[in-house]
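FIELD: query
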Amino acid sequence: MPQISGGSSILSSSQIADGIIINDDIAAGAAITADKLSLSGALDVSDLTAATLVTTAEGLDSSNNDTSIPTVGAVISYITSHVVSNLIEASASQVSVKNTVTETNLMQVTIPANTLSTNQAVEAILFLNELDHRGAASRTNTIRIKYGTTTLATFIVDNTTQDGPFTGGGYVKITLISNGNTNAQRAVCEILFRKTDVLNFETAVSDIVADIDMSTSVEDSTGDLAITITAQPSVITTQQGVVSNGYIVKRLSV
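FIELD: result
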């Protein structure tokens, strides 16, 4: 009588139908067909109850020490949020706000619903190429940072001692953090700009624009809301305004 592991008889195995496997079935090169195998005691879909399935990306986090079987949706969600990218949107497009006194968007990016769930954060950086404010000292460029309908920061850049266009490099940045709830946020907003011909630390105060503001909002982040950065020159002229040079918006946590 042929034997299986442990010395037990094939005929006594609950996984093989009794008496229907013959010598030819176990000859060299022969296959045992499925109809000769009993499925009694085998794993079935009904063995996997809802309690054994991981259905969310959070359930796959190693910190949960969860050994349950993940659904396909949970795996895709985990890969998307943890592996693919935290980038929400990026652009290298230049936007010029000149020859107008109308508040105009330099960037506006929708933050998807629930991105700012409890204790999560996003960051947006707008790159600046030009802060032009030639002429009278009373001229200003106003830059505003908003989330939803809330204005989180207003930076007013006035005229300096520059006798030409204030071109160079810099950025406007917002870090937005959910404050323990989906309808409470804290923001840190910054502006930094340096004129092109300024070298190292040989810098007059008038050659640098730098400011930081901290504020709060109570927007409902369970819906889609935009982060918007605008510019508003004080006079209508081609020698007054703001030119941006692209932006990056990303999640800081998942």
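FIELD: remark
The helical segments are 72-84.
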